[in-house]
Write a structure and sequence with these properties.
- By secondary structure, this protein is mostly helical.
- The chain has five helices and no strands.
- The chain has two domains: 53 residues; 39 residues, no CATH class.
- α1 runs antiparallel to α5 and α3 runs antiparallel to α4.
Length: 105
Amino acid sequence: MIRFLFRFLGMLSLALGFIFVVYDGAKSIVDQRLNISTVRYAWESVHEGSIAQLQPTLQRLAPVLWDPVAVTVLNAPVALALVIVGAFLLLLGRKKKPLIGYARS
């Protein structure tokens, strides 16, 4: 059951990544310049104030978590981040390879 959930969320994440690629492509064609949506843009579109709440918390726990780690992730293209998360979830949810030539007991 959990593998099914991982595979489902992985496929959903890959589909969302593809949707963001199409969205960025259409927006780039309309504006006649390259537009790439970042994770920060997508996050702020869903819940605007949560990044402002996350920053002091991460800086208090460990300043290294905010500046090189979280800032890099927030500035990454959202399509790339979704594809990476989706691929990871699909790897977690893959079915086990059958053992050929071995007896299972």
